[in-house]
Amino acid sequence: MDDDAGALAGLEALLEEEFNVATADTIAAARAILLKRQFEVVVCDYHLPGGTGLEVLRFARERWPKVIGMVWTGRADLAGARAQAESFRVIPKSEAPDLLLGAVRQAVTLALLRTSMEGLRK
Amino acid sequence: MSEIEEHERRLAFETLCSLLRHDVRNKVASARMAAHWLKKKGTAAGLNSEARFDQFHTLLESELVGIDALLTERLPNTGQASIVARGKMSSIVERALSGLSRPAGIDLDVDAADDVVMAIVDDAACALRALLRNAYDASPKGGRVSVRAFVEGDDAVFEVADQGPGVSTHIRERAEHGFTSTKGQAGLGLALVARVARALQGQLVISADPPTRIALRFPR
Predict the structure, then answer these.
(1) N or C: which end of chain B has fewer CB within 10 A?
(2) Is the pLDDT assigned to residue A67 strictly greater than 90?
(3) How far apart are CA A85 and CA A47, in angstroms?
(4) How far is CA B21 from the centre of its chain?
């Protein structure tokens, strides 16, 4: 999710060829989607009108504890962003799109592996 | 220019640089995503047999990366490392008020506790000055502005209230992004306060209804 229409369109275009993607441009819209659907990965901008992406990622994790959250940010003080990002991974917007794509691939693979492991245990 | 005014100018400049870096970086990221998509689709459609296709994609990508690098290199964070120090809340309020002229016809109430808090003292004073300026500007003739500094639980709170028309939802939501103001024009004041709040691991709190109350709140 991202409140910047251009960034959101770019994000969707980058990911939709490999993954099922849902997008949201407000915190309320993201919450509404997360209430209805389970996701392996949630990618969220940091600065959002009326809050931060961390709120969305925390909400996602409460609802779906196995979700992997990522903060995709244009913040210049990356150290500050990382310090505030709790256990969520921080991906700078200044990095090449392939880096974000790779991180999402990695996270989805991890999530699928976890699901398979749980299936084997049962 | 007084020391606090000089500090305020520096903080405003840093806030402006930080907002510009963030906003331009967002735009650059969107453009890079779009370029990435176009390259992929163009390659799939066989456009890469056209020599200009790769050349222009590479040019686009390198220019966008160059813009990002310019932001980092030429628009650096000019501030010296801010020092968190112990300071009396009343001293921070006093520093904020020093040299700040109050418009005629507007009353000011000050109620500041003497509790000692951990803060970037000059930054906190500058944030309070920005809130006070907003309050003075928003106040009707004969209005009253109040400044309260108090401890609430584990937090230090610096709150400014006025009898102006209140802060719209739009401004509340966009405050941290800068270039919005309570006066309906481009402004940095609330973004500056939000920046100070973040540096102190705190937040900018804006009341939803009139009377307008805006507070800088951070762990003490």
Answers:
(1) N
(2) yes
(3) 12
(4) 13
Interface-testing mutation among B16, B26, B65, with chain A (most A C-beta atoms within 10 A): B26
Chain A residues in contact with B64 by the CB 8 A cut-off are: none
Q: What is the pLDDT of residues A42-51, one digit of tens each?
A: 999 988 877 8
Given phi > 0 = left and psi -120 to 50 = alpha, else beta, which region is A104? alpha
The B-side interface with A (CB below 8 A) comprises 18, 21-23, 25-34, 36-37, 40, 68, 71-72, 77, 172-174, 176-177, 198
Q: Distances in Å between the alpha carbon of B195 and those of A86, A87, B34, B66?
A: 19, 23, 31, 27
> What is the rounded CA–CA span in Å between residue B31 and residue B171?
27
**Residue from B118, B128, B117, B63 nearest B94 by CA:** B128
**E strands along chain B, which residues?**
85-88, 107-112, 116-119, 144-152, 155-162, 203-206, 212-219
CA–CA separation, A42 and A86 (whole Å): 15
Q: Provide the ipTM.
A: 0.83
Rounded to 5°, the CA angle B146-B9-B95 comes to 40
Q: Write phi, then psi, for B161 (nearest 5 degrees).
A: -125, 145
This prediction has a pTM of: 0.73
Q: What angle do CA A65, B198, B78 make, to 5 degrees?
A: 130
Instruction: Using alpha carbons, select from B33, B83, B188 the residue that is nearest to residue A8.
Output: B33
- The answer to whether the CB atoms of A10 and B28 lie below 8 A apart is no
